[in-house]
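Reply to thread "Modeling small-molecule complexes from scratch"

Following up on the discussion above, here's a worked example others can learn from. I took a protein sequence and the SMILES for zinc ion and predicted the complex. Inputs first:
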Amino acid sequence: MKDFLDELDNELNWVLEETPIEEKKSNPLPKTNKNTNNRSVIIKKEETETQQKQPTNNNQKNNTQNTWNITGYLNKKSLNFPQTKFYLPTLRDWYTRFIPIGWNNETWAKNMWMVQYWDDIVLIDCWVQFAETDMFWANYSVPDVSFLTRYKKQIKWFIITHAHLDHIWSLKHVLPALWMPPLYGTKLTIWLIKKSLEEYNLLEKATLIEVEAGKWIKEKIWPLEVEFFKVNHSIPDSSGVYIKSPGWAKFVHTWDFKIDFTPAIDAPADLTRIKKIWDEWISLLLSDSTGSIRKWFCKSEKDIGESLEKIVANHTKWRLIIAAFSSWISRVQQLVDICNKHDRQIFLSWRSMIENVNIARNLGYLKVKSWIIKKMTPKTTQWIPPHKQVIITTWSQWEEFSALARMSEGKHNSIEIVKWDTIVFSSSVVPGNEKSVGWLLNKLVKLGANIITKDDWEVHTWWHAFQEEQKIMLKLVRPKYFMPIYGDLYFRHVHKNTAMSIGFKEENVLMLGNWNIVDFAPDGAVFKSRIKVPIQDLIVDGHGMWTATSHVLKAREKMMNSWVLVILFRIDKKTKAILWHLKLETRWLVYLEEVRYVHKIIIKKAKESYENTIKDIPDIEEKDLIKVIKTDMETFLLKRIDREPMIIPMILEV
Ligand SMILES: [Zn+2]
């Protein structure tokens, strides 16, 4: 059978498009959203914080038009969020609320915040957690917005700060569940979201609004005023947000940021604008803690470009393969400029890389002549001498099927790694992934490849602020309260210490846990609710969405930690007597040398357990009989062979 991923790659008949996207007629992005000012729904206020409230049934005309199709979509994909009985505590008049819906104490990939003023809700970013070993082969985990489905009429808009997958991936699940609230983001962010929604046939129902970082858009998204300000990161058009509520609460949320004065294609972070925001007397700064254990500054993209140029210029043997994240558009631009100068041909490998480059080029972020960059196929590479080839390939550490992983397995459809190929890892290892990256390196070395990593040359820089950059942000914004966010608890504590080292008082540093509810009073006082939002671990597995505690995952976990024993009893329907020898199936339970002995004692004990139970309770129900046999066998096997397999007794009446 033809490989699924090869088919995907071949399906994409990529041609660099010369027509700018703005000039295309199909699916134009709306410039304004006329509906948004009408979305407010007033719900009755209760007297105390702890009392819970139910949303009213006041309808929103602009949302109902989407209902039928979205429901169809949800039913089709079986991706409904679970039902919940939770209601948000009442928000007092003029108070403004913050809730982290993502996991606030984990470094990677769970990013989502909610802001509420009066009855209007705004969501920021939409995370995903890609498959990890503790997810037991599920595809990925999505934010649990179950409680928000009760409030979908009040959700006024979504803000997306940048287009990294961990900030936009789950929109395809969350947007339809919340009746497609309008979504704001900078240009590249919106276009990459557009690509993702298009694949799920959701684009027609989506309202996507481009904003410019550094420009007020308050008139469009009442009642909150929001400004996007420019920061640097590993993808162009990244922004932080300044949110001002009518309740005098003023928040600055940096999201993922760093400060680079010489970035490759982006402008430097807009420090002048950020400094100006300080004039507004900010109540709270929420700032990225991912890089907080690292001292000094991140290296600039300019330094990385200089290293890459030396490598390309001096490379004369066979092919040069650069492994990078597919969203790192600036790295592609650096390589385009270098290859142009040194007469090399670039080939792009893998669908996500090709699509992102195509979009970035058409939007003007990437300046490249068509001849210098081609999709890699056996046909396109055949006339170019190997030492003139620079192959840019994806390397996603969450995706075992990324192009580089397939090259290491000899399964890539266009390239076979051979001796003298040089592979440059122009990206960092995400903490926790060191082992799998080590395996990948070993496989590539076995094939004869020469490896260059950031430990050999300056071929990669970090994409989250180090301590000095964090200090600059703290000093420029000068908030009353500071909340270190997004990072393991330890990282957040280090960030807290950094803030205190430049004069922040401990009582003004808020360490918010997961799903806490924090309300800001108009006089600047802060209240943490005793109530927490009940968020569950939700996973997408196949075509369905499930809670990670479901019995399927528990069984998979058990199988991971133990082994399987199936015992088949074939019995007489009337007498209940065992008719034939018991049949056993074991997986990973017994070694070859002991199989006869272990099977023999299992059969003997299982038969004994069945017959004794039937004798004691002749009318026992089958499910209870199975339970007894299971317990007996568990105790027996632990005692006799010191192993705890998953035991599945099956009774077949003949
Ligand atoms: Zn990011």
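What I'd highlight from this example: The chain has three domains: 31-44+87-296+463-547, 301-452, 562-653. The two ends are 40 Å apart (CA to CA). Questions welcome below.
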